[in-house]
Amino acid sequence: MIRRKILLSALVTFVALNLLGLAASRSASAAKFSVSLTFTFGKRQPNGKCGPGRGICEIKLGLGAATALSVGGVASPINDQKLDCVFQGKLPDGSATFSVDRDIQVDDAIAQKLGFKSLTIRRGEYGVNAGKGSFGGVELNVSTTK
Questions:
Q1: Digit-coded pLDDT (tens) for 62-84
Q2: Beta sheet of 124-127, edge-to-edge order
């Protein structure tokens, strides 16, 4: 009788711990991170500086002072291949599209705040969705490592 109670107690404990572990892993995978960033628009020149052009040239952690070429925004990973960015100001040229002419390796500090070891924005043409937030947003194609 005592042996049966001990086995039953152990079984209940085992099931409860497994259910708690499952719930914890589900909530961890569903966690969503958001990071405030400053996007500088233009075309990255061979010397590494931003020059004239349409595209994302540089991304910095935090909201910087607005300039003619930069705008603040909030980035959140959708998954390990898409990054949702909502702008918090008007885009410099007001265009509905922009290009990333070559892959942009994002600073490790930004990648880590978004839950990744590394994050690279993939080159390509991107359309701004005017319905995201007050100033529009975009879903960027990214490659990541965890």
A1: 877 767 788 999 999 999 999 99
A2: 104-105, 118-121, 137-145, 82-87, 70-79, 35-44, 50-61, 97-100, 124-127
**Using CA atoms, how far apart are residues 125 and 13, in angstroms rounded to an integer?**
53
What are the DSSP E strand ranges found in the chain? 35-44, 50-61, 70-79, 82-87, 97-100, 104-105, 118-121, 124-127, 137-145
Backbone angles phi and psi of 94, in degrees to 5 = 65, 10
**Cross-strand pairs, 125:** 99
* Residues of the chain above pLDDT 90, percent: 41
Choose the most confident range, by mean pLDDT, from 49-63, 89-103, 124-138. 124-138
| Residue 81 structure tokens | 């291949």
Nearest Cα residue to 94 out of 126, 124, 128: 128
Please tell me whether the overall predicted TM-score, pTM, comes out greater than 0.85 for this model: no
Q: Which residues pair with 139 in a beta bridge?
A: 84
**Three-class secondary structure of residue 105 per DSSP:** strand
**Which phi and psi angles does 142 have, rounded to 5°?**
-135, 160
